[in-house]
Amino acid sequence: MQADVASQIIHHPFQCIASLEQGGGQFLLAACGAKLLAYSIAGRVIASKWCSGTTDSIAETSNGHANGSEERPAKKQKTDNKKSSPASRIISIRVSPDQSHVVVVTEDKVVHVLNVSGVGDLTELSQRAMPKRPCAVRVMPNSSTILIGDKFGDVYSLPLIVSEPQERPAQPEAEVAKSLGEPALFKPSATPLTVHTKRNLRALESQKKQKIVTPRKEPLAFEHKLLLGHVSMLTDMVHATRQVDGKIRRYILTADRDEHIRVSRGPPQSHVIEGYCLAHTDFVSKICLIPRTDLLVSGGGNDWLGVWDWLRCELLAKVDLRKAISHLLPSIDERIAVSGMWVVPVAAQTDQWTLCVACEKLPALIFIDCSALEHDSPADAAVTVYETDEAPVLDVAYYGGNAGHVLIALDDRRPDGCRLRAVQVTGTRDDSKTRSKLDISEFNTLNAPLRQLSASNGVVEDDAVLDGFLYTTANLRKRGGWDEDNEA
Amino acid sequence: MGGPPNKKQKREEHRNEAKAEGELPKKKFYRQRAHANPFSDHALTYPASPSQMDWTPHYPSFVATKSEVKPESDAADEATTPRLDRQLEIADIGCGFGGLLFALAPKYPDSLILGLEIRTSVTEYVEQKILAMRAQAKNPSVQPNITKLGPLDEDTKPPKSELNEDTKPPPTNPDPSPTAVSPSQVPGSYTNISVLRANTMKFLPNLFPPTSLSKIFLCFPDPHFKTRKHKARIVSPGLVSEYAYVMKPGGVAYTITDVEDLHLWMCSAFRGSGGLFEEVPGDVWEEREGEDGLDGGGKGMGEAWEAEVREDVRIMREETEEGKKVTRNGGQKFVGVWRRVADPPWP
Ligand SMILES: C[S@@+](CC[C@H](N)C(=O)[O-])C[C@H]1O[C@@H](n2cnc3c(N)ncnc32)[C@H](O)[C@@H]1O
């Protein structure tokens, strides 16, 4: 009996990770369910923890004395938001380019902005509820604007920092929205909204660090702009720039479940569509820009990755994924769903990059040398498959610039499992037949501490529930043949 | 869900007969639940990109001869997809039973016009009617069907609701079409119109290349009254960007509705398009006293252009099925005319 129970204990993996550099130190941000850890890579310790909920059940040593004591985890302060919000699992982590803030999105559609101190302390500054599930989140290069693409295809921009709440405006936003015939595009459509009572406002004055929480039932009750809209689920989004005649041109590239990759101008002209990269015949789930080039790589429900000249919306090549991973697929007709794409540096090289691709539930990470994609025939680019011992890849991050340390979050649920692994891409090895292959080596000095971190942060979960949470990409595929309108 | 079996059967029989004989189809056998959810997947077929769309079955009279096909296209599918000798130019988005298409066909015999409709059987009806009209125009004398059609215009019929039309006994004069009366006068012989089942809210860029269309008609769109459903409207801020994308600078988008709120919504979507569209004021397209396409004082785009816009507005008011219905019921029609201007300069 006891053995049975033990074998049933499974651990929650780190579903999203990111890296951050603060105060000269490197931090790994790792989300485990509703919790976010800031792990100091140099110190090999957890610098701080944050949890998305404000329920009392989450034992946070909170008290009202906000004096910025540095060792303490993020403060949990009760607002008068009546009920405390239950903890909600983290679905996205983005670090602002200036490394000062972290944008965390939780399953309950709330966008949390956290401040990061020099020693890795996380302090929540704001919570904003979106109307639809955020599917793609980016922080603009200026580190002051967040872009959010949602399940219904809309892309909003939000200021990273919410302005101080003011007195309740005369007309709440919800009312304004109800008044007719006013599509709110291309102009700010909301005023900051007060959610605090007078008493709380007074408290706020004394506590400068009080976080700003907008009501969940009234989404978008804060400053925002609707930038563009697809009539389809948005799956991914990137921001790109080009220099023309000494001036920077900004673009937003968006991908959707209906096979589209759209190239729009960046704000304030995001209503101008520059083009569509069309070739996919199944959903597009991930798009990724290749540094220093005009190349975009797209992946989704097709067996190949698209390599595009995105400025000209021209498909340059299809890289055969199935061929590369067929030996790892459970059956020959197993469908492929690209669940992640990242660009990481090649160690000890300046400005040399490799593309990493993860497929849903596939226990391997695929590496493609970016310089091979720039060659005349990108379709022949060598693909290096790095197997991850039965554990599917969930997320990838890197730190340390030229050192090129790549962190891989793995879905290993065993109590002593390896949920985080550090590797280095140490360069290219010439392979006469397939051009250059990449050498991937484990970065062992970090792997032992990461294993400890994994062990200390297990959460018991149900396997099926966990699968449902972690593996959503394949659900993007359309179920063919069904048509609600075929019958009159 | 299908109705009682005998009704369903009748539909089938009629549709098959109409198909076999090339007869004018009867609307009542093609009616369909009014609303389709634009967000759902449906079972649509559509090209991955415009270059992969084979339009030749739609416009067989406009197929490019070998020498006209440019050889330079490098992509394999582009090279193998048969080509037309011209681009599609006019789109009727949410065309319903196609009244506008049949009225536009003889007006613009050299332009390829496409109706887009999400409902399967409504699309099938339009398809059948186009084939029947083409056949009749080709060979007017051999069509007994034509003579059966009286000169009665639908406008002169007593008003009746769409729905109970289904349950009534078939009228003696089931589907009179004004243009069908004298097919010999038709210059284009309906070879320049076609219909496609499509969810235009998702797949417009799959069908039309950028800057290709010179006219888009958005006639009597479903109103989707609830605020929560505004994203399901066929004119929305996001979609205005897509209409702009497929349109030529100088092209015109037309909107018409009998729902004032929807009109205001559509106006603000076009006005808020960040300079992609310019409003063509009512004094340009409003009907004028005793004019016949010619009028003094033409300004801006020129008289001929204004006359054409005026005529388009008249057709849209009078020839769409919904337009006729609104007339019968004495309702009001709200028109918007929007000119696509060039993309704004980069900031
Ligand atoms: C009220 S009817 C108007 C029909 C016609 N334009 C007229 O004026 O008589 C609106 C039509 O738009 C169609 N429609 C709605 N959403 C659509 C979509 N996303 N794509 C194509 N057609 C659509 C509906 O099926 C319906 O036939």
Overall description:
The complex is a heterodimer of chains A (about 500) and B (about 350). Chain A has about 500 residues and is mainly β. Chain A has a domain at about 280-475. Chain A contains 7 helices and 29 strands. In chain A, strands 5-6-7-8-12 form a 5-stranded mixed beta sheet, with no helix packed on it. In chain A, strands 1-2-3-4 form a 4-stranded antiparallel beta sheet, with no helix packed on it. Chain B is an alpha/beta fold. Chain B contains 12 helices and 7 strands. In chain B, α3 runs antiparallel to α11 (about 305-320) and α11 crosses α12 (about 320-330). The termini of chain B are far apart. S-adenosylmethionine (SAM) binds near residues 118, 198 and 234 of chain B.
Task: Give the count of helical stretches of chain B.
Answer: 12
The CATH architecture name of chain B reads 3-Layer(aba) Sandwich
Helical fraction of chain A equals 10-25%
- Mean pLDDT of chain B equals 82
Pathway (chain A): tRNA modification; N(7)-methylguanine-tRNA biosynthesis
Function (chain A): Required for the formation of N(7)-methylguanine at position 46 (m7G46) in tRNA. In the complex, it is required to stabilize and induce conformational changes of the catalytic subunit.
InterPro entries (chain A): Trm82 (IPR028884), WD40/YVTN_repeat-like_dom_sf (IPR015943), WD40_repeat_dom_sf (IPR036322), WD40_rpt (IPR001680)
Region (Disordered) (chain A): 59-87
